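Amino Acid Chain and Its Fold in Token Form
===========================================
What this section holds: a protein sequence and its matching fold, both as plain text.
Structure line: whole-number tokens from a learned vocabulary of local backbone shapes, matched to residues.
Purpose: to set a sequence beside its fold so the mapping can be learned.
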Amino acid sequence: MVAKIKRQIGGLSLLAKLGLLLLALLLLLAAILLLVFLLPRHHRRPLPPGSPPVNASDPDNIVAFDFSPFLILYKSGRVHRMDGTDRVPAGVDEATGVTSKDVVIDRSTGVGARMYLPPAKGAGKKDLAGALPVLVFFHGGAFVIESAFTAKYHDYLNKVTAKARVVAVSVDYRLAPEHPVPTAYDDSWQALNWVAKNGRSGPEPWLRDRGNMSRLFLAGDSAGANIAHNMAMRAGKDGGQLEGGVAITGILLLDPYFWGKNPVGAETTDPARRRQYEATWSFICDGKYGIDDPLVDPLSMPAPEWRKLACSRVAVTVSDLDDFKERGKAYAAALRDSGWGGEVEEYETAGEVHVYFLDKPSSPKSAKELTFVAGYLSHE
């Protein structure tokens, strides 16, 4: 059959052959067009609508100050916090048996605190009656993030309270940039005196009935350690006592946030990094205090000022890889050399970064530092 068709085509003239080829091409083209127009198109999904264009001139989109990884301030005044905004409820901690509750210190400003009480030993509660040291704790976060109610601080205070057996008051002060320094100091001072007043005769039963106000400690990490130091300095300038004649026994500074214009020890000499710390401090205090102000650089104080520190014991912890390590060690040395008559302890952790014990609470190094903290607070 095929051979017969070939013979028939071969017998055609050249013109007839060209006509036949053209017809075949036309039929092929028609078949292609038919497939294009008749096949279903349900698989072809429309593209999603595009995002509306960002108005680059809108003050709500213009960065006024980038304090990453903590927050970004926009020209409109909008603050975007990148961390430290979570909140966990108070209650009974299953791991430690510690009970916590929230209290309001000043309704007009919103300043408050989270309080912690350790479980009683044995079957009774006699060991809690007026015998527990009182710890006032100030959280860190560069003065701009975190609170007394975030998970990392709630977990840490549960552990400290259980191991040191203290009544703890974790202060929730207002944050910059909405409330620049000295607001954090003023709020903390108000909270500290609230603790002192309630510990003597106030309505708060955990302080009045369980706490021993003759063993009052202040502590904090990073910016909170800075606050603890400044509270003890303020108490010293106010006669050395708080409301009701309460005195501060000791302060515990965990990786304290101190800085200054000129490097100390092996502190970084990188100009860009030092400018960065200077700029962030200016942001925190809205330019009110320089980087050499004693609030952030205690080393700028003369010896007579150091001797006003209103406590008899100080402990400073530092972390090996922390930018603030050298100034923390210099703080301890300057306090000893000033003629201040109290006891200074130091604790250093090798191979760790700033406030590592909050980010790695289960590590052996964190457990070891917690033992130091508890021993310092429970020591008679």
In short: Residues 14-38 form the longest helix (25 residues).
